[in-house]
Amino acid sequence: MAKTKFYYNSHTLKYEKVKVSLWTKILRLTGVLSCGLLFACILLFLGFTYLDSPKEKQLKRELNKLTLQYEVMQNKMDQANAVLKDLQERDANIYRVIFEADPISPDIRNAGFGGIDRYENLKNYNNSELMIKSSAQLDQLASSLYVQAKSFKELETLAESKSEMLASIPAIQPLNGKNLKRGISGFGSRIHPIYKIRKMHSGIDFSAPIGTPVYATGNGKIIKVSSDHGYGRHIEIDHGFGYKTLYAHLSKFAVKKGKKVKRGDLIGYVGNTGASTGPHLHYEVLKNNRSVNPVNFFYNDLTPGEYAEMLKVASQVNQSFD
């Protein structure tokens, strides 16, 4: 029961009941409720701002765990990328050099993927940047691994034919013996014996007596047995793998067009036919139909010392024989 309040009336010298109007009661009640509501809002604000509910605490733990897993995955992908980069460098600078294959272009290795909205579903999260970065790096890693796997498959095929390639690439001198004192005119700019001007000499000339045997320098197929004013009697061999060899100014042929030969097989004899100023063999090596220096292919039948002497003699700027 509510307590009755009295006040002392100085005029009547009596205690009289305090009479509170309904409106005053309503105002007081409203004030109390307002203060209570304000206090409750403050408590709720502080609670939601600084205090986590059990569910929020669980979600934050899961988020922290997920962020940590992303960071661990990022580190592992960085390590995988480092290993892949090393494999790519070995592929381009070692493996493909050994098998004489063209390196894979950076455009293919770094080919893009997807569209601009590929990671649209990962945006607008607290860790969107981390998730997008990791996803993009993972996609790039998968793409690079696919390209590298195809490259290794190609190298595997090349390795299976490596023994055939090694037997086919020109690797010996076309003339028997190692007498480096005989006349040699090498590859490069040389004085033409007839016109007496410098011209590109696309092969190497070996001075030798007429009738000296000429041998195939690698396995291949005879694709040309012909005679003309320039090369005289000459033979061309297709060794495959982009290699061809030419033997010019012969006196006689020992093979016919279409015959398959092996390294060291007799194919003809030294002569003085065509535009020649003396008995000799003009020998050329072509890689992808471009003349290359034949002296770089005499490594199978010369010792290191003999090969060094051959390089020295062939590099001398002198007059060619054709």
Automatic annotation (TrEMBL):
Keywords: Coiled coil, Hydrolase, Membrane, Transmembrane, Transmembrane helix. Residues 56-90 form a coiled coil. The chain crosses the membrane at residues 26-51. It comes from the Bacteria. Its EC number is 3.4.24.-. CDD domains: M23_peptidase. InterPro entries: Cell_wall_metabolism_enzyme, Dup_hybrid_motif, M23ase_b-sheet_dom. One of its GO terms (molecular function) is hydrolase activity. Pfam families: Peptidase_M23. Residues 199-294 form the M23ase beta-sheet core domain. This is M23 family metallopeptidase. It comes from Albibacterium profundi.
